[in-house]
Each structure stands twice: as C-alpha cells, then as structure tokens.
Amino acid sequence: MNSIHLIALLIYFTVGTIIAYTSRRMGVKSASDYYVAGGRMGALLAAGTYAATTYSAFMMVGLVGLTYQTGVGALGFELIYLVSTVTVLSTLGFRIWKLAKTRKWISPSQMIGDLYGSKTLAVAVAFLYLFAMIPYTVAQIQGLGVVFQVSGLEYVHGVILGTLIILLWIVLAGIWSVATTDLYQGILMLAGGIIFLSWTISTLVQEADISKVLETLGAQGFLGLSSFWSPQVFLAYTIPWVFFAVTNPQVVSRLYVHKDANSYKRSVALFSAYGFLYTLIAISVGIIARMLAIGGFIPGDLPRDSVTLSLLKLMTPGLSAVVSVSIMAAAISTANSIVLAVSSSVFKDILNREEKSLRAAFAINLVLTLIASGLALLKLGYIVDLSVLTSVFLLPLAPVTVLGVWRHGKLSTASRIAAILAIITGGGIGFYGFVTYGAAKTFTMSYLYLPISAWILITSTTILALGILVDGLRLKNKK
C-alpha cells in the first residue's frame, strides 16, 4: 500500500474514532437517544449529518463518471434533487419535525404507522426498508472498494476495512457518534472536492488547448442534453430524487433530531449552501474529465465508475491521498446512517423492542452491515444505478407520507388499507423491473413514454386516492 495513503487513512480513522468516542458524553440511555439524539441536536451538527448522509460516494465517483459520460445534463438531474429537497424540508419536513416532537418517533416506519394508526403498515414499511436500502448501502461500500484500489489495496480489502469503520462508529454512541463523525466527514468531503477540482483545472490548463477542447466538447453534445438524456431517461433519473427527502429513512430520521424550530431552519439553510457547492464541484470535475479525455490526457471510453479512479492515479500521492480519504468519508457517512435508520425500524416495528434494549440495536446493526458488505463483494451494478434504484423501490412511500402528514388524525380504515396496498403494489412493480431488466435498466426503461418510476408513483397515488374516496363515501353515508 502507498505509504502516504496509509498515513492519510490512519489519520482519518484515528481522528474519526476519537470524535465518535468523545460523543459518548452526550449520553445514550435509551433507544430515543441512540437513534434520534432524543431531539436534542443543534443546527450545525444536524446540517452536517444531513449533508454527509445525503451526499455519498455517488457524488465523487458516480456523478463524476455520469457527467464524464453524458455531459451537463447530469447537472439538471442533480439540481432538481437539491431544489426539491430544500422545498420539502422547508414545508412538509418542518411539519414532520413538529409532529415528531410530540409523538416521540424514533423510526420512519413508526412515523408512517402512527400517522395512519396502523401497526401493520409500520411493519410493512420496515420490511420495505430492509429490502430497498440494501442496494444503497452496497453502493457506498462498493465505492470504498474502488477507492482503496488507488492506495494499492485489493477491492476486497477496502470492503472489509470500510465495514469495520462503519460498525465501530455506529456502536460507540449511535446517532451521536454518527452525526459528529458526519460533520467531520462532511468537512473532509468538501475539502477533498475542492482539491480534486483545483487539480483537474490545473491539469487541463497545462495539458490541453482549452479553446479547441471546448469547441469539441460542444460539438459532441456534452454542453447540452446529450443523446443519453432523452425525456424518458431524464424523468427516470429525476423522479425518484424529487421525493428522496420523504422516502429514504436515513434522511427522514434526520428530521427528528433538532432541538427547536430555530435549529431546524438554520440547518436547512446550511444544508442548501453545502449541497449547491458540492454539486457544482462534482459536475465540474466530470466535465473537466471529459475535456481531458478530448485532449488525450485520459481515455475517452472509461467505464463510469472508473473515471475518478483513473484521475486519482494520475495525481501526486499526497493530493490523491486526501481526495481518496474524502471519498471514503462520503461513503462511510452515508452507509452508517442507512444502517442506523433501517436498524431503528427493525428495532421498533419488527422486533418491537423496549426503549432500554440497546444490545438488540447493536446486533441489528451488525447483521445489516455484514449483509451489505457481502453483496458489495459481488459488485452489483453501477453506483449511480444502485443509488437511484433504491429510491425507485421507495417511491410508494412518497404519496403515503404526504397524505399521512396532510391528513394526520383524519384517516380511516380504507385509507390504511390503501396505504398498505400502495406500498405492496408500487414495490412489486419496482421488483418486477429489477428481476426482469436488472439494476442498470430498471429505472431507464419506459412504457407508454413514461419510466417505471412514474408508473410506480401514479399507481400508488391512485390507490391512495381510491382509499380516501371510500372513506369519504362511508362518512357521507353515516351522516
């Protein structure tokens, strides 16, 4: 292993572990403390953990490669996610936070079950998380394996080492150790991204005729919507991300942690600024990578997930080490947040454990992490595809959550049944696509000019609407 990379990794691991251990002073005496900080978290920590959880290896590995391969259309895809997320956080998310303060939720599945008054629904959502979140966790651990190859290690070594870090930082203090290391890792991610972008710009200036490269870049369609970004494909990529903030448990659970309204609002503002800057950095690196390919500095036919790896190998060892560690941080911060969120649903809604049963929480975290790591060794699909595929599976939760928050306390039997049917039907459509077409094609395929994600959303929303209609008719007949 490259000695500089080893030193950087050891520093990263040591500092992170010290931070995680120090966070134990916040006190973890119950499941509420362990999973959602007892609703005591301040704005900076909450914003840091939300940003680091949201922006994963997908950005500096997946999104860079996607931009290199398809052009600036990837910017539109990612900015739509950011704008929609900030909108949701500023409206529906704030309502969820207020309800969480009074209802004492510790898991997103518990929240949905409580909104509809159905334990069965909570269990169904918990099982959906178990099934759907594995691809996303696998994507993060895959990213670790890929980046470790830059350091001279084998892919399998990266997976094993990443797994150990994920488990350790979860076990020490639950959400407190995850959140404090997330803030630390979020800073590393941003610093690494800036260094990565600066190096690619400097290399481009030195190695290529920029005016000629830009002319070729435009002629090949990389500065607009390239042939890859057909309307159906663009919708397929963007629809799942529009609802990311209300469907993915690792971010929904972050809505419960704020200590007060001011903390919540400040954290949304901080996240917005961070997300915008980090998105521009990732997209810029991808575009410059394509320009470097046009200039002959790197190959023009690299696989998506190999673009960042190829660039890192060309950097000086010191810079490469810093950027590599920042990408590891992005993957680890997201992976441990996913494990913790899914664990909370298993703990509360499947096993129905008591507040003090923290040993059960530790065991659940161990099992979930080992399953994801084992699948990561199989190298299932592209990182981008796996990430978006998770949101496809979770899409039925978007209308279910929105309706539950909007009509909290006013939902009756038909709506509860409709919510369960919407999740089963929508998830079933996604699973059928996955089995039939595979991870890479599931969300890009279309039927009647609409991607599978649109059909999942339409189907689940229609089922819910029918449930509300039946409830309304019953109420009218009683009168």
From TrEMBL:
Keywords, comma-separated and alphabetical: Cell membrane, Ion transport, Membrane, Sodium, Sodium transport, Symport, Transmembrane, Transmembrane helix, Transport
One Pfam family this sequence matches: SSF
Membrane topology listed for this record: Multi-pass membrane protein
GO cellular component, one term: plasma membrane
One biological process term in Gene Ontology: sodium ion transport
Gene Ontology MF: a single term: symporter activity
Keyword set includes GTP-binding: no
Domain of life of the organism encoding this protein: Archaea
Transmembrane spans: 6-23, 44-67, 79-100, 121-139, 159-179, 186-205, 225-247, 268-298, 318-342, 362-382, 388-406, 418-440, 452-473
Cell location: Cell membrane
Family: Belongs to the sodium:solute symporter (SSF) (TC 2.A.21) family.
Protein name, UniProt field: Na+/solute symporter
Organism field: Thermosphaera aggregans (strain DSM 11486 / M11TL)
